[in-house]
Amino acid sequence: MDRLARYLPVLDWGRRYDRQAFLGDALAAAIVTVMLIPQSLAYAMLAGLPPVVGLYASILPLVAYALFGTSRTLAVGPVAVVSLLTATAAGTVAAPGSAEYVAAALALALLSGVMLVAMGVLRLGFVANLLSHPVISGFITASGLLIAASQLQHILGVRAGGHTLVDLGGSLVRALPDANVPTLVVGLAATAFLAWARKGLRPALQRLGLSAGTAALLSRTGPVVAVAVSILAVVALGLEARGVAVVGDVPQGLPPLALPPFDPALWAALVPAAFLISIIGFAESVSVAQTLAAKRRQSIKPDQELIGLGAANLAAAISGGYPVTGGFARSVVNFDAGAETPAAGAYTAGGIALASLVLTPLLAHLPTAVLAATIIVAVLSLVDLGALRRTWAFSRFDFAAMAGTILVTLGFGVEAGIVTGVALSVLLHLWRTSRPHVAVIGQIPGTHHFRNVRRHDVVCSPEVLGLRIDESLYFANARAIEAVVQEAVAERPEVRHVVLNCAAVNGIDASALESLELIMHRLHDAGIRLHLSEVKGPVMDRLARSDFVDALTGRIFLSHHEALAELAPETTRDCDAAVRPPIDAGRTFPERTQRGR
Amino acid sequence: MDRLARYLPVLDWGRRYDRQAFLGDALAAAIVTVMLIPQSLAYAMLAGLPPVVGLYASILPLVAYALFGTSRTLAVGPVAVVSLLTATAAGTVAAPGSAEYVAAALALALLSGVMLVAMGVLRLGFVANLLSHPVISGFITASGLLIAASQLQHILGVRAGGHTLVDLGGSLVRALPDANVPTLVVGLAATAFLAWARKGLRPALQRLGLSAGTAALLSRTGPVVAVAVSILAVVALGLEARGVAVVGDVPQGLPPLALPPFDPALWAALVPAAFLISIIGFAESVSVAQTLAAKRRQSIKPDQELIGLGAANLAAAISGGYPVTGGFARSVVNFDAGAETPAAGAYTAGGIALASLVLTPLLAHLPTAVLAATIIVAVLSLVDLGALRRTWAFSRFDFAAMAGTILVTLGFGVEAGIVTGVALSVLLHLWRTSRPHVAVIGQIPGTHHFRNVRRHDVVCSPEVLGLRIDESLYFANARAIEAVVQEAVAERPEVRHVVLNCAAVNGIDASALESLELIMHRLHDAGIRLHLSEVKGPVMDRLARSDFVDALTGRIFLSHHEALAELAPETTRDCDAAVRPPIDAGRTFPERTQRGR
Description:
- By secondary structure, chain A is of the alpha/beta class.
- Chain A folds into 2 domains: about 1-10 and about 20-425, no CATH class; about 440-595, STAS domain (Transcription Regulator spoIIAA), CATH 3.30.750.24.
- Chain A contains 27 helices and 10 strands.
- The relative contact order of chain A is 0.14.
- At the A-B interface, α8, α13, α19, α20 and α21 of A face α8, α13, α19, α20 and α21 of B.
């Protein structure tokens, strides 16, 4: 039962469900439903799919997540970035508007669902960690710009396309002479209203006498107001006849339940894209879920979240939808409106189902320019160019990863962008840790403390060289350590003992073990013994699994002081400050402050 | 002048060259020459090239390395693994034996030379660090097996081929009925003699009254003895008429000097292979050079080594050779024979040039089976299956990287093998560090020391949660830390302060900073303040470049004890040992030993 409840969290919270929780969930669901209708239509359009697919993706997937997800307040459904990734991937195998294109979107949901569930069962959630923060941030900024650019065609009432900023821009400029003025008026009016509504609607509602909370919630209904007003305008002013493009007939009714077509060739072609959709969707969703859970001192289980999102995508695949994940804005609304359990998601699904049954005839007259305006205003709020400046100040490495991701995404498309970003951040991490800080250390007279000889007035023994390694040892830096030791010893002919202080070494792998053995043998050939001091438990346990400890020419000392006391009991002298330590940099914070004192 | 000497080390050691150095170098060169003649013929055959190409690759490249290299004793020339990589790469663009094939090998030398020099000038030697020890070790074992299998055709006197063990094996089994018995006799005799000579020749020579040193050096001449005896046997017994394949006419004379043909399409096709050849050749060569330099307390400069090896490959490209690098066995012989400066390499080049002028007519009657035997005995000595067992005992992660490299190399070829190995070791490293050890720490009563509550009898404050993070913080583990803190706090409703002890945190990147900020905001939402203690200097400097320190809800304490004294001055109690700490494992070595006392 406990095991079952782990995979079906509904069995846990469902047993304690009461009237109070129901009221909170129902109110939140009503508000999220109103917010989700225009969003799901708009994101389906962004994905190049019929608008109704967005509605379908907002029904069963929400029920599936309610059963399997661990976040109390995450609101699942179509989101901007995943819609763009869907458009890119489906566009490589079929023409937008074709039945094959819709089938490709279904296949992406299916593959993504299978991958997410598999990663959850195998506990592989860590894969999402490969997306470093600068890469995600850069990717979202760049894809926000790409998405906004791709929607300008609907505002202008023209056709344009392309997967890069240059292609899109060129296509738009060429199409500019064909712009439809009534469409432009509707589109710009909607954009202006929605941009104002994000910031200005809430204080305006408060001035009308609404409470702060109610005003905050109602301010999220801007898109619905824009949708309703624009439908009225189209009908009243006969704008369709004046060239304003509308959504057109939306099939009325519930989503069709059917297994996606069996098409291994199509699946094979979409596997890489489905993998990107899965990990990007997961990374974004988990981050939202964790932030909201923390506010109520709850916690989520990332591996079970994989299963929850996987189930949602499988549900999308069998009910005419396309890939979904947790959305930021609507989850915050759900949370603020008082959702208490995942049941709120199921009630939202009910609301969208009702809309599919009842409201679809009205949507036929909805201008696509208004949907485009919804998307543009939503994604531009995600563009954060200031992050470039902050990241530059913090670290050139992280800046390089972020800037690389942005440039490649804008210049070569979303898939190239995310792959470049991940490769860059992994390589930069390896490079950053490939030259560890190593300090020659000496004793602060009269104490048991050892510090960098370049930073402190310390004493050393000419025969004993103490080196403190400030990094875990693994393959990327193992050879650097060899070189550092070799150089340090080559500069000090009188050295007879090398003591590596390992207090900051948190781990060691086989390459580093090999390097330690090489260092030991090379030192031995030169008549020098190798010792270690202050080795941490996990590292010691690891070393004990090899024959290194037995073969060691020197000893392993509990403290560096003990090593010095044993190896150089009498003769200490001032360290030769002129001697260049092998690698320059760094000091510990307490050291610096002690100096200041 | 100093700057010039950095790029041309010959300007440094050349000025101090004396008679003593000349004698040492000349003797070493004579012995290495004798050893190198059969090796260079054999490895050219392994690379699918005419044997004379091996001689050409052992002349100018050695002179170039003598001018630009930093190792005093590294012996450069054709080596087994690089020859196999050359065969694989050239085989994809041309048929072995064709002029295009030879041109492809030249192009590989050219590209590899350009890449190595470029990496040297840009100081990118760190790229070789991506080859972890288990990957190199597994790759050499697997390619040794592949090479040995590929040479069995010459021992059997048949034709067989393939780039994987399965293809090679199948091809050999099918060809078995055509085996030539005289060839088999010659081949097995040579293999048996060479295998014995590796171990048995030296004691035998010592029993004959030679000194240990002389015996050791002469024992390396086994291959030359086999070559000479087999040539005599072929001529005396008329073995060619009985179907024993021989090397055939070898052009007499010095290598032709010519720029390699300008062929951008060919170069583009060979770039990935040339890159693999470059980094594998460099990694192997640097490891040999460092080991030998250490024995005399010398040091080498890895970035200048890139330039030296690059120059050697460029020299090979303009003199009819193919890719070269530093060889292990011949460098050891060079060292043992008393080489004192890189001039020994230049003298060896002179010896090989002399052989090309004088000895080539004799080589026409050399059986290819003897060359194959030379290769088989040499590469099987590199096969180290015991390393699998040792690595398994040391770490499952490293074992997985090694086993993966071996299996993919044997099953899918050398290029797939090395790429898989690198990808595996990087992913496993990221995974290994993605779940850092985090301990809940408490105070050892009466001391300023804090230890893991699960390992020690310590006291805690119910309001202050101390967490020690035993890993540098970066993108792969940033989210794990978020989850750990969140879970730890969710389990302890009375907590009002969280103090992260950062004594073991050597670095922090933008993702980790973002996570710390998220942790801080989430804790703040739950009414908890976040503090840090014992932050190292480099980490503190990094944090100071963001606004994290200003925004921090708590303080940064120099010592964890200070934090406790400030935040929980009076009330401490026994830690609730039943409380499960967020992540289990590990302890420090001093702690364990102190317990033992």
